[in-house]
Amino acid sequence: MASDQVTADPPAAGSPSNSPITRLVALSCAHPIAVTLISAVLCLLALLYAAANFHLTTDTEALISAKEPWRKNSAAFDRAFPQNGDTILIVIDGQTAEIAESGASRLTAALMAHPEPYRHVERPDGGPFFDREGLLYKSTKDVKASTDQLVAAQAFLGPLAADPSLRGVMTSLSTLTTGVQQHQTRFQAIDTPLKSFADALASVEAGKPTFFSWQAMIGSGAEGGVTAPTRRFILVQPKLDYSALEPGAAASDAIRAEAKALNLDAAHGASVRLTGSVPLSDEEFSSLSDKWWLVAGSMILAMLAMLWLAVRSVQIMLAILATTVAGLVITAAVGLLAVHRFNLISVAFIPLFVGLGVDFGIQLSVRFRAERLVEHDMTRALSKAAAGVGGALALAATAITLGFFAFLPTPYIGVSELGVIAGLGMIIALFLALTLLPALLILMRTPLQTQEVGNKALAPLDHFLVRRRKRVLWAFAVSMALSLFSLLWVRFDFNPLHLKNPHGEAMATLTDLMKNTDESPNTIDVLTPSLAAADAEAKKIAALPQVKQALTLSSFVPDDQPAKLAMIKDADTLLDPTLNPFDIQPPPSDAETIAALRQTAAGLLSTAGQGRDQGSADARRLGQALNALAAAPPAVRAAATDMLITPLNVLLTQIRTLLTAEPVSMATLPPDLVADWIAKDGKSRIQVFPKGDSNDNATLVRFSRAVRAVAPNASGGPISIQAAGDTISFSFIEAGVLSFVVISILLVVVLKSVRETVFTLAPIILSIFLTLGTCVVIGQPINFANIIAFPLLFGVGVAFHIYFVMAWRNGETELLQSSLARAVFFSALTTGAAFGSLMLSSHPGTASMGKILMISLIWTLVCALIFEPALLGSPEQAETVEA
Question: Rounded to two decimals, what is the model's pTM?
Answer without folding.
Answer: 0.73
